[in-house]
């Protein structure tokens, strides 16, 4: 009995290490990639958010407020911190959707071995839980040191109790959401046929991802304790997880108002229900799932035939266009990246629209600022979101097919990439903007705005593809340095006021024909210069199919003075 238990423990430990590394799809990375850099990118984003929240805690402790005002501000801040935890856990769980359940490789390789199904399941669960736990810890490592003390009542014991309540609430929030998604995935895999589950998995991911972003920006009419107490009988407010777990924190802290006890009670119910769902899937349903995975093929003929995309242009343009369009429609990760940018765009749009004032004395022939801002944000997130998905490869077959069958110059393929991005992003946004503009806005002003919007989309496409030497979805991914998150979030902060300012400028340009024509001419010249520069950079170059780090020269200076130092060069393929 003891030898069997030791055997299962050793097998679980080995599988745990393997599954932990498989959370990141190594086949999508470059042969020279370092996985620690990729994990460093995620950690840097989470750490930056935690540090920002920590400085907010210092400011909160210095504020002079009444007891009621401090309680209301503390409730809102704890609600925000828990919402961030929900967002991070949800995003990480959904992005590792395929790593939560075993695939056919796991079943066929591990099935003949003396490994129990529950051992396989617990190894999967432990690997995913460790990754999510590490992300939650990094997210709260700085803010969790300051905010419990800032939210505590006076007294040493109250501060100690607040620290315990804070970290327990964060743990319960992460366990709840992770268990809820895992229970939903397991139930869907058992209730649906294997082929239907594989087809609907991407839709489930999109729904969970969109729901997570929507819940993060969910605005209950009042986040103060008094406002929530008045809405305790409203279902979507009383059962909203961030509200419930915020009430659980103050309940464990000992400062919860009796009127809000129902929120804490709902939180305990949600936590128990999610834990029960995972337990049922683990003990009773998981072994049956393994046999179903082994008996059903992963790839089956599709019953729904997608319509052919437009086939204008030469054969290379048609092939690249078909490949990009169908890869985006079928690629789960590519759609998730686009959904992430759409969610960021929705947040930016809501933030900008709150600052845009409606002028009641606006002439009927003037286009509204809200319409201008909405279309500009839609164009930006569509182009940037689809372009960001180009960096992730779809499969190794696409990598080798284009690499071995390149029959034209590289510039032809790269130009087809640019035309495809314009076709799939700029053109649809312009068409939708024109339709809504003709319906809700002055037709003449809307037509002028669509022309400027298309020019802006063309410029943005050129900037996004500046110096690009890769075909979409075919080049292996090399994690860059961790400076990207700071540049990305800094760009978002600058984009909000710039969008508002440009919308006001464009509103004046549309009312003046000379100014509008001048702006259109300047934009056209800039687009032509950018296109000329991109074409010159793509001349007489090879398409890059594998991200290779730059060569690093390290001088050891071991020679005597006046002699040439010894230099070692890294990053060069030994086969050369």
Which SSEs are present, and which pair or pack?
Layout: H1 2-21, H2 35-62, H3 67-95, H4 97-100, H5 104-110, H6 117-140, H7 143-151, H8 156-191, H9 194-216, H10 225-230, H11 235-238, H12 241-253, H13 261-295, H14 315-330, H15 332-355, H16 369-389, H17 396-404, H18 410-440, H19 443-464, H20 483-510, H21 513-537, E1 552-555, E2 567-570
Helix pairs in contact: 1-6, 2-6, 2-7, 2-20, 3-6, 3-8, 3-9, 3-12, 6-8, 6-13, 7-8, 8-12, 8-13, 9-15, 12-13, 14-18, 15-16, 15-20, 16-18, 16-19, 16-20, 18-19, 19-21
Describe what this molecule looks like in 3D.
By secondary structure, the chain is mainly alpha-helical. The chain folds into two domains: 11-22 and 41-295, no CATH class; 315-537, no CATH class. It has helices at 2-21, 35-62, 67-95, 97-100, 104-110, 117-140, 143-151, 156-191, 194-216, 225-230, 235-238, 241-253, 261-295, 315-330, 332-355, 369-389, 396-404, 410-440, 443-464, 483-510, 513-537; strands spanning 552-555, 567-570. Strands 1-2 form a two-stranded antiparallel sheet. Helix 3 (67-95) runs parallel beside helix 8, helix 6 (117-140) packs across helix 13 and helix 16 (369-389) runs antiparallel to helix 18 (410-440).
Categorize the overall geometry. Answer: globular
- Annotation, overall tally of beta strands: 2
Radius of gyration: 27 Å
Residues in helices, as a percent range: over 70%
Summarize the structure.
This protein is 72% helix and 1% strand.
What keyword list fits this structure?
single chain, mainly alpha, 2 domains, globular
